[in-house]
Write a structure and sequence with these properties.
Distance between the termini: 76 Å
Shape: elongated
Strand content: 5-15%
Strand order of the largest sheet: 4-5-1-2-7-3-6
Low-confidence stretches: none
Number of strands: 9
Largest sheet: 7 strands, mixed
Structural class: alpha+beta
Oligomer: single chain
Helix content: 40-55%
Number of helices: 17
Number of domains: 2
Length: about 400
């Protein structure tokens, strides 16, 4: 029995409740990745596992699940509430009375179930190890400490809840239409917006400080992920994050959570600003943009430096050379030697077309390199090697 608010949406009665996480798999059928519900899509177990792992974050957040009831729930309104507030009785899934099916939230349901089972399994394994005996005192103490932490996690899941909106809909065909309508009207956030608000990544946390650099200030699109030829912006917020990852971790931008956690934000900001100083000093066109003498549109019309791909290449080359203890002044001087070759469109006699390592990544008359990760990696390897051959 749950305290519920009754409302109307799309002509249907809707009951909004808050459900403890440990109750969730009692009132909703846990989806099976190997058995697709005919009224829903196949569940991706990896995605569900990721949500379960996310629940370990004490500041987790998730929207309400949308489910439909074919007639199994009963609502008892409170006196004086005009039928808007009351108690909703929801049958347990193993009672034989449950008629509730998930419309939106299958991965969250499975993720909660997997996380609860993970904790329970870990507690059971510790109990079995302790029951066998023969352990040293320090090992016993470690097991007991781990068990206390696991029990605390389980108790937290019992205390924390998630919203569930239950739509009263007996018609199966209309219920399937609800799923389609929800999917069609959902709008995911762009990578640019994620870069602005997702503080779990250092490249995103440092975004505001990095975009204060003279080259970027007022020239970063905070909403869009793609830069068109006519855009007044130089790059998007996502691309700033890409540059930061390139400077810190290389062209793939991948690193371990442990390494990322070890970085201090101010260290990252200082390094990225140093890179931006480097390319602004090395390339006259970027200096002109920073000074307001050249617009991003004009830059894209005449230079490879107007492409996000080339900027990412420079960021990764900078990272490679700094990792080999080449100082910023030397890198800046090296980049200056590349400035005459940054003209666009790319001509057949360009160094980018003449070098066998880079030629597959630059089409003739192109204004940007081929943006596949592999191609950008080839360019980074070549440009880094050119420095060593000088």
């Amino acid at each position: 029995m749950y305290l519920a608010q009754r409302s109307i949406q799309g002509g249907r009665e809707v009951y909004s409740i808050r459900v403890p996480l440990t109750d969730l798999t009692g009132i909703l059928i846990v989806p099976n990745p190997d058995d697709v519900d005919e009224d829903n899509r196949r569940v991706n177990e990896r995605h569900a596992q990721d949500f379960g792992a996310y629940l370990r974050n004490p500041r987790w957040v998730a929207p309400a699940l949308l489910v439909r009831d074919a007639g199994g729930c009963t609502f008892e309104p409170m006196p004086g509430s005009n039928g808007k507030v009351g108690y909703l009785t929801v049958p347990w899934t193993d009672s034989g009375l449950s008629m509730i099916l998930t419309i939106d939230g299958q991965h969250r349901v499975l993720g909660v179930d997997l996380e609860i089972k993970r904790i329970a399994s870990a507690i059971l394994a510790i109990d079995r190890a302790l029951a066998k005996g023969g352990l040293k005192d320090d090992r016993i103490a470690k097991y007991e400490q781990e068990k206390v932490a696991l029990l605390a996690e389980m108790n937290r899941l019992k205390e924390e809840s998630i919203g569930v909106d239950i739509y009263l809909e007996k018609d199966g065909a209309l219920a399937r239409q609800m799923f389609v309508d929800v999917a069609d009207n959902a709008r995911g956030i762009s990578a640019a917006v994620r870069s602005r608000f997702d503080s779990s990544k250092v490249a995103n946390r440092t975004l505001d400080q990095v975009t204060k650099h003279a080259l970027l200030k007022g020239r970063v699109d905070m909403e869009q992920d793609r830069m068109t030829r006519t855009s007044m912006h130089l790059i998007g917020a996502k691309h700033v994050a890409d540059l930061t990852r390139g400077v810190m971790f290389g062209i793939t931008g991948r690193t371990s959570k442990a390494k990322e956690a070890a970085l201090e934000d101010r260290e990252v900001v200082a390094t990225v600003l140093d890179f931006l100083d480097c390319i602004t000093d090395a390339f006259p066109d970027l200096a002109a943009v920073a000074e307001g003498d050249l617009t991003p549109q004009e830059l894209r019309g005449r230079s490879l430096l107007g492409s996000v791909g080339m900027l990412r290449v420079l960021a990764a080359v900078y990272r490679n050379l700094r990792a080999e203890n080449v100082d910023t002044a030397a890198i800046t001087a090296y980049f200056r030697t590349l400035a005459p070759s940054m003209g666009a469109p790319v001509e057949e006699v360009s160094i980018w077309r003449k070098d066998s390592k880079t030629s597959p990544s630059f089409e003739e008359d192109a204004y940007a390199p081929v943006m596949r990760q592999q191609n950008l990696g080839y360019i980074v390897e070549a440009v880094t090697a050119w420095y060593k051959k000088r």
